[in-house]
Amino acid sequence: MISFNVLKDGFLLNEQDGRKEWVKKAIGLEGKTTGDIQFVFCGDDFLTEINKEYLHHDTFTDIITFSNSANPSVISGDIFISIDRVNENAKSLNCDFENELSRVIIHGILHLLGYNDNNPGEKLQMRAKEDYYLLLQT
């Protein structure tokens, strides 16, 4: 089951059912099964506190992903997304907010699927996968 939780005042998530189906499709195309995935849309302050507490980083970030999968073929986890960062990223990249939000959503899913972005090669692979799945979004 995929759930969307909004903790950011004034933020409304559009097309929830379509986004859920898109995420499930991406997971299926990677040969995995969708388990329990919780998205939490929050602000910078909330996500910075999670970043400090669990990752020991005192910085802004757009996304933090925690895998809860006991079975590697079933994708489960919690994905925290800062709407403030997504908005700033969209402005600095001169792109549409909804497009950037979709990119961050699929980025979190790719992390749950085992993809990383710790070095240039991994970053290129991650970006290619993001681009591919963005094209499949309806």
* Class computed from helices, strands and strand pairing: alpha/beta
CATH C-level class? Alpha Beta
What would the principal axes of the Cα set say about the shape? globular
* H and E order: EHEHEEHHH
Q: What percentage of the residues does DSSP assign to strands (E)?
A: 15-25%
- Proportion of helical residues: 40-55%
Radius of gyration: 14 Å
Instruction: Identify the CATH homologous superfamily.
Output: Metalloproteases ("zincins"), catalytic domain
Count of discrete alpha- or pi-helical segments spanning 4 or more residues: 5
The CATH architecture name reads: 3-Layer(aba) Sandwich
- Low-confidence runs of at least 5 consecutive residues: none
Main β sheet profile: 4 strands, mixed
Give the strand tally. 4
Question: Into how many domains do the coordinates divide?
Answer: 1
Overall pLDDT = 93
Strand order of the largest sheet: 1-2-4-3
Structural account:
The structure is a single chain. Helix 1 (16-29) links the parallel strand 1 (2-6) and strand 2. This protein has helices at 16-29, 44-55, 83-93, 97-112, 120-135, and strands at 2-6, 33-42, 63-67, 74-82. The protein is α/β, with parallel strands linked by helices. The protein has one domain (2-135): Collagenase (Catalytic Domain) (3-Layer(aba) Sandwich), CATH 3.40.390. A 4-stranded mixed beta sheet has the order 1-2-4-3, sandwiched between helices. It is built from 5 helices and 4 strands.
